[in-house]
Structure formats: C-alpha cells, structure tokens
Design brief:
Blueprint lengths: L4 H39 L1 H7 L4 E7 L6 E2 L5 E14 L6 H12 L3 H13 L5 E5 L4 H9 L7 E10 L12 E4 L2 H5 L14 E5 H5 L1 H4 L4 E7 L5 E8 L7 E3 L3 H11 L4 E7 L5 E7 L5 H4 L4 H9 L8 H4 L9 H11 L8 E3 L2 E4 L2 E4 L7 E3 L1 H7 L2 H11 L1 H10 L21 H8 L5 H8 L9 H13 L1 E3 L4 E4 L2 E2 L4 E4 L4 H16 L18 E7 L18 E8 L6 E7 L5 H18 L13 H10 L6 H8 L2
Parallel strand pairs: 2-10
Antiparallel strand pairs: 1-8, 2-3, 3-4, 3-5, 6-7, 8-9, 10-18, 11-12, 11-23, 13-16, 14-15, 17-20, 18-19, 21-22, 22-23
Length: 639
Amino acid sequence: MRRTPTETAASTRKISRRALFLGGSQLAFMGILGLRMRYMQVEQADEFRLLAEENRIRDFLLAPARGLIYDRNGTLLAENEQTFRVVIRKEDSAELDSVLIKLEELIGITAEDQARVRKELKDAGPSAPVIIADRLSWQDFSLVSANGPALPGVTPEVGLSRYYPLHEDFAHLVGYVGPVSSYDISKMETVDPLYKIPKFQLGKFGVEAKLEDELKGKAGLRRVEQNAYGRIIRELDRQEGQPGNNIQLTVDHKVQNFIHARLGGESAAAVVIDVETGDVIAAASTPAYDPNLFVRGISSADYKALLENDHRPLPAKSVQGSYPPGSTFKMVTALAALDSGAVSPEETVRCPGYVEVGGRRFHCWKRSGHGNLNLVGSLRHSCDVYYYEMAQRTGIDKIAEMGRKLGLGQEYDLPLSGINSGLMPDKQWKLAKRGAEWVVGDSLNASIGQGFVLTTPLQLAVMTARLATNREIVPRIVKSIDGVEQPVLGGGPLEINENMLRAVRQGMYEVLNSNRGTAFASRIANESLRMAGKTGTSQVRSTVVDNKEVPWEQRDHALFVAFAPYDKPRYAVSVVVEHGGGGSSVAAPIARDIMLFSLHGAVPPLSDYPSAQQNTIRERFRTLPLIGNDAERDERSQA
C-alpha cells in the first residue's frame, strides 16, 4: 500500500527525531568518556605512574594499645612501653641473604637470629611478617630506617610492649602476657585476627589471662603502597586500633608491697579483705618472680631456676595453695556444735591431755592437759581435746555444713588463674572419693583442721570476714572496667545466731588480749585497734615432729587469721607460712604487722606495739624494702 504524502512526512519527522536522540546520546557518552580519559591521563597520571611497574597496595593490621591495669588508688600495675623492631615478609624476602648481611653490619644481629629468621620465613605464610630484631635502641632503629633503600622488604615498626613497674609484687595477681603461640591458637574456638600479628602479646596468667577479652582491644588497619622490591612508597590510609579497656583492681599496691617485704624469703601467703565489701586489698605469695621476664619469652635458664626453687615461686599460693587449716578451723567446729545444741557456751569439758577413741589416743598439743574449759577458754588456749569432744557430739556433716556456710570448700569466681576450691569433706565425700566409710577418728582430725580438710589463704580470710560480720562476704578483685564500677556480691545475712558468734569472737579476742592467750605476744597495744584472731599449726606429716629436728620441708605450717578493730571490724587477714613452725610465734606477728599497715595505710606507729617490743619493731621496719621514701618511713616508724 502506497503511503500518502502526509504519512511520509510524519514518518520522516519521526525518524529524524530518533536519529537526533541517538546521535546526541552517543555524543554525550563520548564526551563523558573523553573527560574521564583526560582525568585519568592528566590529573591521575602521577598516581597511575606509581602503580605501574608492579607497584602494589598492601593492608597491614595494627596492634591496639592493651588496656592498662591499676590498683584501687590509681597506681599503674601494668602499662605499655614503646618498642622498636624491624620485620620482613616471605613474599618480600627475595634478597634475604644480602639484607641479613647488611643488618649484621648495621645493628649486629647474630647468626642465631639469622637462622631463626630463615626458619620462620620458611614456615610463614606469604604475607605474614617475621620479626628480624626486636626491642631495638632508638639509635639502631634510626640506622635501619635511614638505610631503608639498601634493605628491600625490611619494614621498621614502632609498637607497644607490656611492662610491669612493680615487678614481683603483683606477679601472681596481675599475671603476665607473652607472645601468642600455636598452642594458644589451638585452644581458641574463633581466632581474632589480632593473634596473627607476629609476637602479639596475650594474657598468659592471672588477670591478664582471665580478662583478655577486655584488655586486648581491636585491631587497626594500615594501607600502604609498595613497589616490586617490597619498599613502601607511601602510606595511603591509617586507622588506629581501638585500645583495650582499662581495669581497676580492688588491691592496694602499698599493702601488697608491705606484705611481700614483711614475708621476706619465706614460702608464704597472706590475704587482706575488706569485711564490708569483700574487696581483696592484698593477696600476696612469696617468693615471687618478675613477670617482665615472661613478656618476650623467658630464657630456659631463668625458668629452670624458678621450677627448681623449693619455695615454689611460680604458684599463687594465696589462691592456689591448699593447706590443712589447723586450729584456725576450730571456730567452725565450735559454731557447728553450738548450732546443733550439742554444747552451750558456758559448758565445760575436761582436758586431761588426750582422749581415747577406738583404742587410739588423740593427744592435745599440751600433753599435760588444760583442765576444765568452756568455749571461750578452749579458743584462748587452743585446746584440742575440747574439739575432739565437740566432733563426737556434733558429727562431721554438721561441721562440714557450717564450714561451707563460712566460705570453705568453695571456688570463688575471680579472674585469677588456678583458684583452688580446697576441701570440706563429709561422709558422702569419703564414700564417693575413697570408697570407704567415715570413721570417728576422721571427725576428730577434722575438728582441729587436720585430716582431709584443706583450705586456701583466700578462703581463710573470707571465713574470718564472715565470722566478724555474720554476713555472706564474697571476695571481689575487680573494682571497675573501663570506668564502670563492678557490683559487690553477696553481703546477705548468714543467719548464724548472733549470741553464738559473740562467744566465738570473744574467744578469738582472748587469744590475743588475754595474758594466757596463745598469741598474747602479738597483741595490738592501741585499744581502739584491738585485734581478734586464732593461731594454727598444721602438720605435714602423720606424726608429731620437733620442727627444729627435721628438714625444712617436713616442718609444720604456721597459720593465723584475724579481724580488726574488734569493736568495728574493717579488715580480715589470713597468713600461712609454709613449714614455718608455730602459728603463734611465726604467723601471728606477721599478721599483726599486716593488719596495722592496712589500718593506717602506712608503716604503723610504734605506739601500736607493746613497749617492750618497740625497739625490735623499729629495726624490723627500718630494713624492710618498701615502696616510697626511706626517710619518711624511718620518721614514721619512730613516731
């Protein structure tokens, strides 16, 4: 069909409009393409020139600053110090031999280090950095940086490393960090990219390990441009890591330092607890070690010396040590007997020096006997026969129940390594664990803190705090995380009859403040600070020994627990001196000094001590290696 002239004209106009639209679109596209080509060829010419010849953009993780750890007063217990190092990556190590020769000339890296670098590069992934030299001086670091063009693939880095300014004092509490190992990685369900940074430090022990997630922070990112030789051309972008959270502990560094100084070379432990809050003011174990030795990997010789030391410096005895409590346990037996109605505070028991059960004699420490004693007198003189009688009347299950109520046989939820739960045995325990029935002799031994009963210094301090307050004191060691106060746990009533507790506290008071008490020599002269406590001596052998006649490791442990001031308790203290001998002669004087230092917050005045002892005390304090000014300490001790 032929089109009419009108239809032909309309079709022509329509085609012309489409052609114009299509042509305009093509022209616009070509214009944009031309502008983009001009932008890339002219304005970005320098950047693309640098990216030519096999230049590459690389991303590197940046280790964040680890969170700091403080004591309750804001004193640093764990901080970060700046360190300098140089690293190389496998994919950038084509000229490794010449690089190592040059570094040997510049900073004197040893043949041993060179062999280590070769081995680590062989085992490492293509982009995993390997440390050539660490902890360089500023001068050596500057030499490497200045000679960068002659050291292809070598990257100088500035980092942070953990440092413990108080050295031994908090080794067992704060713990230490160390380089991430393959063993550490194997224990992780998910591996944080941070741990792939070479020699990245993670917590290995103590608070550092238990609060690792809070302390480690989050990785940052560094984007750089490198050429074919591994040399960094420029830094394109840098995002710093997120620092870890700061931790404030409940401990007081001055009290902790005093305890370490006072315990001296003994194999011992001591704990101080605030009886109102449960805050652990100090938890010391001696001897200790410098945690800085572990930060970069302790030497075999140093570690062997620690392992072979018979005073065991590595364990945290304050929470890991497990000891028969000896006579410090007698308050538990006494309260169990009172609570069960087996005895009244006024009733007396005659002590002839022993009791015979099942054809076997169980002796009192005083072989001639104490005569007739009531509850207060039994604590004052620490009479064993009284408690043998209470055990027979009460039974082990009631005693164990009271022990648990007072905090024994429990593992407290604290961010510390290897916390020991001790042992508060009963009939069911022996049947399950030993496959044997409980016998009366077991109860007699347990009643005086021997036999199967085991406690830690921390548990003994908690027990004493609960005796002082009749409240469920729960120990706390973290005061705040990133400025957020942590809750005080427990504190509810124990629901022990207060009259019974008054009788037990009176007995503890007379241990120190009656001239016939077993620790009268360790009393506090200041009436407003009078202390109540209990001595303990626990056997480490099944037979009674003369401590002077046997080797150190066979001697009895010396123990003491106390709270003060008696009228308004503030602190509870426990002291255990391994193989120290008598609790009254060894542990009690130490506990008194610790208590007075805790109450004063400094070396106590001599007026707090009996006048006959003041010259001896002055000389003792003068020679203690304490933190602070020696002149101030001397002035204080003479006040």
